[in-house]
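Box S1 | Example of a co-folding query
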Amino acid sequence: MMKLLSTLSIAVLLVACSGSGSQQQEKATESGELNVYSNRHYDADRILYEKFTEQTGVKINLVKAGADELISRLEIEGDKSPADVLITVDAMKLNRAKEKGLLQPVEAKTNNPPKFIEEENYWYAIAYRARVIAYDKEDVDVSELSTYEDLANEKWAGKILIRSSGSSYNQSLLSSIIHANGEEKAKEWAAGIVKNMARDPKGGDRDQIKAIASGVGEVAIVNTYYVGLLLNSENEEEVKAGQKVGIYFPNQEGRGGHINIGGIGVTKTAPNKENAIKFIEFLTNDENQKFYASNSFEYPVNQNVSPDSTIASWGEFKIDNLDYAKKTDLNEQAVRIFEEVGWN
Ligand code: FE2
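Box S1 (continued) | Returned holo structure for fe (ii) ion
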């Protein structure tokens, strides 16, 4: 219902300014401005966008919303869309946009290894983050940790912290578990996690770590960059919370740890394809990948660039392959399972 409502409200918005779509597109082409649809929410992005404008003179107009909303918006706008690029924090969403015919393949010069470029060049990764286990260093013996699957074991009853199922990070993680173990096992896993939760899901990933620091729960599933942000925060309490936890990369004996890819694709009807490609090359170049590494604490995708020292101190890890992200219907299955097991 919510989805329908938001689609409707976009439709209404478009009707209200009907006729302006193609004018907007023409205007964008003439001025060379770049229209960016993004669901990333980091200061680092904003700073880099300003830098891009300084260096190239190309103004960036940013539309921020959830990935699903942005994809619906592109669908509704059709070939009159003013958007040049779509940026999401999840490869699955970019693949969905590709399947829906909303993106076009482009040749951009990057130092991304092949695994960080879509097979047919429909999108390029700009950064990634691992979804890891953060554990209370005082209360958890690291030898107790092994896999995501193991966290559903009753030995963790009352100890697990994780955000709500509405998060695309969790939907993506569960999709990878469905892909690895099948739907039934994945459902058992989700039910086990719900049973083991220290509290009903609330807040973002940082809040799960803060909860560990204040004695609620012992083990959290979080993205690495949030730990980096806590440890490098100006707020002393946040630094202390970050220092309370150790980082564990799960499933290292098996398929590897889950990652989320932030990536960018050029829209099919991009009014400024050339600038869009320049923008991809800009975001993935050595200098700006270093900037991402030390400001958003993500892993760089450019193979010439190393992660920030905080992140690097946790060591290297085996990454689960991204095959699950090509099966975009797994996301729907994941959402259904979350609902069925009552993961709020
Ligand atoms: Fe995030």
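The first strand starts at residue 34 and ends at 38. Strands lie at 34-38, 60-64, 85-88, 103-104, 124-136, 160-161, 219-223, 245-248, 258-267, 299-300.
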